[in-house]
Amino acid sequence: MTAVSIRVRYAETDQMGIAHHAEYFAWFEVGRTELLRAHGLTYRDLEKRGVHFPVVGTEARFLRPAFYDDVLEVRTEVAGLSGARITFAYEIYRDGTGPIATARTEHAAVDTEGRPHRLPADVRARLG
Amino acid sequence: MTAVSIRVRYAETDQMGIAHHAEYFAWFEVGRTELLRAHGLTYRDLEKRGVHFPVVGTEARFLRPAFYDDVLEVRTEVAGLSGARITFAYEIYRDGTGPIATARTEHAAVDTEGRPHRLPADVRARLG
Amino acid sequence: MTAVSIRVRYAETDQMGIAHHAEYFAWFEVGRTELLRAHGLTYRDLEKRGVHFPVVGTEARFLRPAFYDDVLEVRTEVAGLSGARITFAYEIYRDGTGPIATARTEHAAVDTEGRPHRLPADVRARLG
Amino acid sequence: MTAVSIRVRYAETDQMGIAHHAEYFAWFEVGRTELLRAHGLTYRDLEKRGVHFPVVGTEARFLRPAFYDDVLEVRTEVAGLSGARITFAYEIYRDGTGPIATARTEHAAVDTEGRPHRLPADVRARLG
């Protein structure tokens, strides 16, 4: 599990006075960027090698709202790994209490033209 | 079912050259805004009456990418309605072929302070 | 001048209860996409030809707020055109009263590697 | 001058392969949030006291692109302060070389109803 801290931006709030649910997906993306880095990979380099991980599915639960200027912890882990698929799981915490959100994102590994592409062996070895 | 057309904005793309998955949640929101309007309600007025529908859960499948300047059709329907919960289902189409994305969003009805709030009778009658 | 109508999305609001100023830049981008189309060009095709228009400067005035579900008219025109530069000017209207926002964006024409690139003759002829 | 570090998110890129210019305005907002904090204020508390700083104007220059996963430094200072107006100036740096972007944002101080509101004395004292 890799943890990264983010602070809720004003631009991420909506007129309900809370962080808009769509913004969480950018935070999850920060979470998986840092998980890869913690495993000796960068998604920037993976893309340069022609490996892309578009999101093909997601599910998320928003248990309690997040507010402007809150400091949140995004915890990310690999929840599944197969030939050309990878699934990440996320929990977002504030103040050590139970999670305020949980989610999973499922990704297909594709090449630069969007065709399915087997995950490189070194990526599988580092994340497996 | 209510259909609304949107055109993919440049700002909605990412460096993979496709619309970023987080943007779809703004499109789904446009879909439910228009569904409510088609049933004689506006979410703007509901909020003025103190009724808010924060998203408490979602699941989405991204089946094929959407590209800048694509014209998409967002089809929205009420998939579930109970005392203080409402679920919407979405399909996004391009060019009449099968959907490029499907999703559901589940909402709690809450008051301005975020407390659970039974859906007003007129809302239930119009959407039920 | 080319006019295009947009409706303020819920995701575009912030906790001040108004459309967030950063969102206007996506609307201006919609404005110039439609201006190009009205002149027989599409920015999608320009990019396929290797011509890109990154924003190198902007100035904007936000005169009155825009609210969720407002229908706005974005009016765009070419304000300047030189060898490898193009400037667009914008006004946003609601309800026919004076503009609620005005702006300019200045763009460099660059190739796919980001190097300065003279505007193609047909683009200059159509926009000049 | 207050400096804060941000890392470019994947969601902030566009299909030109660079951070989209609209995203910089969220970064500038992070910059002024941190400037206020460094001066013993939080914008969250200011809003609770009924003081809001909507953006009424901006100008920005984008000198060099920013890329996904870049670590940037946003430097913010108060460039002007009068009865009910405040102007911030920004520079964004990467790697210690010259700035990649510069900007100013001008804000009106307003109350919760959007009416002009003189800046509280303590705010003026801390920022002046």
Q: State the CATH superfamily name of chain A.
A: Hotdog Thioesterase
**Poorly predicted residue ranges of chain A:** none
- Kindly identify the CATH topology of chain A: Thiol Ester Dehydrase, Chain A
How many domains of chain A?
1
Distance between the termini of chain A: 13 Å
Rg value of chain A: 15 Å
> Can you tell me the overall shape of chain A?
elongated
Residues in β-strands, percent of chain A: 25-35%
- Multimerization state: homotetramer
Largest sheet of chain A: 5 strands, antiparallel
The most extensive contact between chains is: A-B, 22 and 22 residues
| Shape-level CATH architecture of chain A | Roll
What percent of residues of chain A adopt helix (DSSP H or I)? 10-25%
CATH class of chain A: Alpha Beta
Count of runs of 4 or more consecutive helical residues of chain A: 3
Output the strand order for the largest sheet of chain A: 1-3-4-5-2
What structural class do you assign from the helix and strand content of chain A? alpha+beta
Mean pLDDT of chain A: 96
